[in-house]
């Protein structure tokens, strides 16, 4: 037998059928073939769907195989036919019972014809041979069909395993691409459904200072500073109404402060197979906002420079004359009571105008520093001593933590002292009567370089969010008598030393200003 099947003994092999039956079968071969084909076409829906030509070819092969088996007892043709019909029926999907019935038709036709011709004696002599032929054919076909079917299932399972392995490899590759495209990009990617976040990548979480479990299932607005929420809500509602995808919307992150809180988001509505969602990309635009702020600051400083140059001679000289004359009158005139007080106020206000003009000129001209080895602790101590009388006026308590092992560095001591005085003055003015100001220094160590830090903390009302981004902008102030140049000069001095100045504040909980200056650790 062809194929991977073990050959079984021919248990159904018999001696040839009687010669008279073989002669009768030869004589009626064409009529038997025609009737077999006709009855086969009506046997089942599977055979009804087969063309008459194909049925005739199949019946011819079956009849030839049966004839050889009955006439000689040779099984060769019938084995080949069984192999042929098994493969054909498996491929076409014919039920096993339909094929068995098709084989059975041969016996029914032969018996019916012998009986109709009243050849009862011939029927009795040949029935054993016909039964043997059909029994062998049906049993061998059933066994062969079962084995072929099992082999087909085995091959299908093998192919399925290979397909699963290929699909698993493809999914692994797809997952890797997903991680590259979504998880490893610098932009934050998120999906919102029913006003809550259902997906976010790691970059999105990092931008908002949260973990993934703190994001999923939560509203996007919970990550946004209160002052920016309405802008995002309006953009969300516009998209959900069917409007075009949102252009860049800028917002501030909740819990962050100043320019470092700036983010930008683009979003649009779509359907990813699970209902309508909003997908979006957000970017950290802190650096861009900071750069834009620096450009505006440089433009403003250039304008201040031009203004200062034109005003310096027009204002400074008259102020000097007015102040000198007022001082002469103060010494010569014998004034008393409120008249003397008026003169003192006039001298004081002229001095204040001179101080404003001096700061204006300092702000306008390029800042140069003369660095020498300096002690930041000593500078902080001197600033505390200088401002102690002003603190006592408000019954303020100034505490300090100035460690003796602070790293030394090169700096312009007078300018750094000016910066620290400005920070302390702001803290004293911000504190309520009987409040507290704390100043500290510390070293931040690295392998070859590091920083020294000076911080000032007050327990005042804090900084309103709408003023946070303008703290270091020249002339930006909320004070009645302030000129808005103090913090601007602090920033200029610190940056001239290649350092940074940072601020942290919550409205109602005071403010913290921190200066960091680089230092080389030998």
Describe it.
Strands 2-1-5-4-3 form a five-stranded antiparallel β-sheet, sandwiched between helices. It folds into four domains: 19-158, Globin-like; 188-284, PAS domain (Beta-Lactamase); 297-364, Helix Hairpins (Orthogonal Bundle), CATH 1.10.287; 372-520, Histidine kinase-like ATPase, C-terminal domain (Heat Shock Protein 90). The radius of gyration is 50 Å and the shape is rod-shaped. The protein is an alpha+beta fold and 522 residues long. Mean pLDDT is 80; it is low at 1-13. The protein is built from 15 helices and twelve strands.
The end-to-end distance, rounded to whole angstroms, is 91 Å
Shape: rod-shaped
Determine the structural class based on helices, strands and strand pairing.
alpha+beta
Please state the CA-atom Rg, rounded to the nearest Å. 50 Å
What share of the residues lie within helices?
55-70%
